[in-house]
Amino acid sequence: MPQFTRRVLKAWLLLTSLASHSPIMEPATSFRFSDLPLEIALLVLKYAAEPTFSQKEEYAEKNPYETALSLCLVSRLVRRTILPDFLHTISLRRCHSMRMFAISLLMQKVYAEEESHLFFDYTTAVKRMWISHDDFTEQRFQDSETKLYMNLLVPVLLAAPELAIDWYNLKLVVQLVEDARTSSADVDGDRRPSLFPGKTKSLTIMGHCTDWEIFKHVRKGSVFLASIPHLTYLANIGTEGDTFRDISMGLVSPEHPLRVWMRDIPWACMKSLETFSVVYPHLSAPYDILAYIDDARGQDLHVERLTVSASLFRQDPENFPWVTPPFPVTNAGKRSTPSDGVSFEVTHDQVNFWQFFYMWDKAWACGLTD
Predict the structure, then answer these.
(1) Of 57, 134, 202, 234, whose CB is crowded by the most CB atoms within 10 A?
(2) What is the pLDDT of residues 78-100, one digit of tens each?
(3) Rounded Cα gap, residues 222 and 185, in angstroms
């Protein structure tokens, strides 16, 4: 929370306390929220509307956007005040979530055509977007419907600096972007395509296994992929937990799992790539991942980020300076660089892990995988 907002809230709480306290035992008076100056009241509402991504409850049990959605109904001014913070981080974890967000974007188009005061440009507010589905069977069954919704989402996700997405939807996004450029009438006399408008700086792919070839099924020569400087994989802890446990403890070199993944990266296309990272829980004893994370109530863990210099790897893959075990463990809140091209960073804060495979949404929403 910004320091100024903290001071405002403290002042409000102090005024409320003083207003209800009477040292000479006179009848207590109440301090109403409506008595606050408008600027202070809007600051309080803006803070209250921030999504509760760090909540203990699962998002399926308690919608982190619940308060913001309610406050949007208070007034036109309150809605416009809280929308930028409300939309800053968008988490679409199910087909239903994608459908509702797509409908909201359609409504904004109608509002814009009608010059309604309800219109709000989502592309200016959304900075981080998560798109995944916890039921791939449902997703494939609704494939045509998903493409329709994704068509509406593409302008927003291309404007967001950070995108986290599963492999299925990544393939769809790449296809839609390329199709849009191919069919675009915005070409010059030499038939050269116009400049790519995407602003994505960080692409995160979730639930990754070492035997997955993500880019094998993604169109090569993609202008979307060509513009990405930072690529991150969220490891599938259910299958890769033991591997990254040993790396986290400094017992095993990250060369083998990362080299497999980096071989799959379309280097000829992703010429802007600067870093490649893998994110996984930072583990201490006991070391068995299946015993460590209680699948009934979870476990609070730090998050570790292993980063490789893509530019250095590209120069000479065979002689890349992988760190040699044993190497020092990186502690919570610290960053280490055991070799020129490899670094480890562990978060100061923790997040609750409990679901295998689809366990990263909360850590990502809280900014712990960045």
Answers:
(1) 234
(2) 999 999 999 999 999 888 889 99
(3) 19
